[in-house]
Design goal:
mainly alpha, Multidrug-efflux Transporter Regulator, Chain: A, Domain 2, 2 domains, two-stranded antiparallel ribbon, 55% helix
């Protein structure tokens, strides 16, 4: 293989990368803007991408197939690139009051299917907490 043909396989235009990865060019630009993958090796009209870009797109597809959101994928990528963080990014939580004395907090960035699952469990738990226990029922009858 000559040096020119080897270089051609390493340097892909956005359209070529999109075709090989099976992802629209617009999506690739979005991933770059969101920090999910690095930008092109060279900017401007001569921008080109390489094997590492193709690999990252394949990883993103695999994580999405496992049900991860783009936020969760970004965390995966950041975790592998930054082994030690000085300060954690603030996390938002949803608070659910199940009873006057019971509040449950759930991370707001959980995936939609996970939030629905948690909300079902919380509804069931709130209903159980609203029902008097056997001891409470007996305490009221002993007078």
């Amino acid at each position: 293989m000559s040096m020119n043909s080897q270089k051609a396989t390493e340097e892909l235009s956005l359209a070529e990368l999109a075709e090989k990865a099976g992802v629209p060019g617009r999506t690739i630009r979005f991933y770059i803007a969101k920090g999910l993958m690095p930008g092109p090796f060279k900017a401007g009209r001569g921008a080109f991408y390489g094997a590492e870009h193709l690999q990252r797109l394949a990883e993103i597809k695999q994580w999405q197939a496992k049900g991860l959101t783009l936020t969760e994928i970004a965390r995966q990528i950041a975790g592998s690139a930054q082994p030690m963080k000085v300060m954690e990014t603030p996390t938002a939580y949803w608070s659910y009051q199940l009873a006057p004395d019971v509040t449950v907090q759930v991370r707001a960035d959980a995936s939609p299917w996970r939030l629905r699952q948690i909300q079902r469990v919380l509804r069931d738990t709130a209903q159980r907490l609203a029902q008097p226990t056997t001891e409470e029922a007996n305490d009221g009858n002993e007078k």
